[in-house]
Amino acid sequence: MSVMLCSAENQRTHGGAARDKITLPYPKFQKIDTIPWRPYAMEGVEYKLLSVNSRTGGFTCMLKVLPGVEAPIHQHIGAIEVMVMEGDVYYEEGDIGTAGNYMFEPAGDIHQPRSKNGCVLFCVFDGPIAGLAPDGSIAGIIDYKAMLEMAERDGVADGVHR
User: Fold this and answer.
1) Whole-number Å distance between alpha carbons of 60 and 82
2) pLDDT for the residue 10
3) Strand pairing partners for 126?
4) What's the 3-state SS for the chain?
5) How far is CA 54 from CA 80, 144, 145, 159, in A?
6) What is the pLDDT of residue 14?
7) For residue 118, what pLDDT is reported?
């Protein structure tokens, strides 16, 4: 089966049944710069929570990491997609992500990211993230509920898409 999208002109004049299926009202863009940065669950990192997914336990957020921060060792229970918006982030010095770089981390990955100069990241968590204690046990879990509680505590939950 071949899929071909109709031109906008064709849809305006012949869209009929398809046009009637458009979901209204249209979703609204979030003005991310109006959301204040708030302290995240780890020192040296701030967040802006954009959406949560109660089905997967995941969430979408922006993270701002201060220069020199080394994250605690953690495991992604669900996959995560990361877009570097500013600065640098890396696991190994030979592979440094900078502005415009994208990374996919599969579910189950355990790692410890660092940032020499600080960074701003756009992150889509497909599931919770677990902080690990020095003995390898789970020290804590951040899922959509924890993120919503944090945002409510910090007074920034109103615009979060649910």
Assistant:
1) 10
2) 57
3) none
4) CCCCCCCHHHHHHHCHHHHHCCCCCCCCCCCHHHCCCEECCCCCEEEEEEEEECCCCEEEEEEEECCCCECCCEEECCCEEEEEEEEEEEEECCEEEECCCEEEECCCCEECCECCCCEEEEEEECCCEEEECCCCCEEEEECHHHHHHHHHHCCCCCCCEC
5) 16, 7, 8, 16
6) 60
7) 98
pLDDT of residue 82: 98
Structure tokens at 67: 């220069």
d(CA 53, CA 39): 21
Q: What is the pLDDT of residues 47-84, one digit of tens each?
A: 999 999 999 999 999 999 999 999 999 999 999 999 99
Q: Are the CB atoms for 100 and 121 separated by under 8 Å? A: no
Q: Which residue has the tokens 């046009």?
A: 19
Q: If we measure between CA atoms, which residue out of 87, 129, 126 comes closest to residue 112?
A: 129
pLDDT higher than threshold 60 for residue 13: no
Q: Which residues pair with residue 65 across a beta bridge?
A: 45, 119
Check residue 1 and give its pLDDT.
Answer: 56
